[in-house]
Amino acid sequence: MAGKKSSRLVLRDDMIFTGYSSNGYSIPIDARPGVGGHDAGVSPVELVLTALGGCTVMDVLSILRKKQEQVTGMEVFVEGERADEHPQVYTSITVRYVVTGRNIKPASVERAIELSRDKYCSVSAMLHPTVPISYTYEIVEAGELEPEPAVK
pTM of the predicted model, to two decimals? Predict the structure, then answer.
């Protein structure tokens, strides 16, 4: 069993909270000004996208490393469209990976994304039944290292 996880949120000011994970890390959380916030932190609905991005990018990186792909950098961009009516749930989400490295095989990236999506990413598994999630990727060939300047 994976065990319990927990979160604690503490009011700081107006609508500003500090969220604490069960292992003690913190993140500022706030609402937009139109509903009493100050944009002084991440909004709860943005945290959903961040959680999805974090979950899947860690899976994909781990899988690519196990495949011995030469990954030197990785980013994931997660964008969600929301309904106009309350509760303004996400109606679609797009996940785009940018994988930088040397001679990265597209088939390896595709398989890593597939495994994350279908088997490993628990956030994706929770969201997928209610919101369509699409996945794209880009591979960027890493440049050669710049020569260091000569020491005089």
Answer: 0.89
